[in-house]
Amino acid sequence: MIDNRLSVAPGAAISPMTPSDIETIERATVAAVSPEAVEEFQGWLLPFDSGTVSRARSAVPLRHGPVENAMVDQIEARYRARGLRTVFRLAQAACFDSLRQELARRGYQTGKPVLVQVAAVKTMRDVCTATPAETADSPDAGWAALFLAEGFDPVDGASRVKALSRAQGSVFASVRDQDKTVAAGAGAFSHGWSSVHGMRTDQGFRGRGLAGRVLAGIADVAAQRGITRVFLQVEDVNTPALALYRRAGFETVWSYDYWTQP
Questions:
Q1: How far apart, in Å, do the first and last CA atoms of the chain sit?
Q2: Phi, psi values for residue 68, rounded to 5°
Q3: Where are the alpha helices (H) located in the chain, listed in sequence order?
Q4: Cross-strand bridge partners of residue 173
Q5: Which has the least CB within 10 A, 1, 69, 90, 204?
Q6: Which helix (H) or strand (E) is 38 found in, with range?
Q7: Which of 161, 165, 171 lies closest to 135, judged by CA?
Q8: Which of the residues in the chain have pLDDT under 70?
């Protein structure tokens, strides 16, 4: 069972999560992936986007509590009006059992669980003793090119570059080998949180600690902005990433599934 803990202070254990923590993480998540449009509706965020980034196009509740099944029709209508298929992002919490049953009855499909993990910015910085990645206020061509490199889905990569580039106040971390960007990621800062997105390492440069340098670069910016806690989201089958994040002090506070309309 996942231990529902959330608030983080430097050097301290993760303390019990609060409804405010959940809401600010969800708001910060949507802000970081910057959908084409977003609506707030009866305690939900409804991001609308034509791209492939699931977090930028899935309805998410701002609290973990019971939901009337009638909400499904109302949310579906809002996505249908924009010509989009409805996707729900639901925490694996008992309060959503009835809603999940209703979605299954309607033929919604679900996929791999995603873990929401949090850490102290200081602990994330300490994962790397090498030179941290350089950061910039906007992505350059080399940063974007890595998302289209061999081994990555170019359509999804282009969509992620577009979504992450739209976010306000983010930084874009790069590790270079001569003139080539070989590791990259994005750091976002809002609602009292830093967050990590779009981690990528060139296939030929994996296993060299470059992702840790990306985390360190983002952590340095967070510390400069006075932000002490950070979150990220990672598929539960991504073993190499999970190992890195564990070393960086990240702990899982909840997991969620995407439920996609047939």
A1: 30
A2: -70, 135
A3: 19-33, 70-81, 97-105, 121-125, 141-146, 154-166, 210-224, 239-247
A4: 135, 185
A5: 1
A6: strand 37-41
A7: 171
A8: 1-16
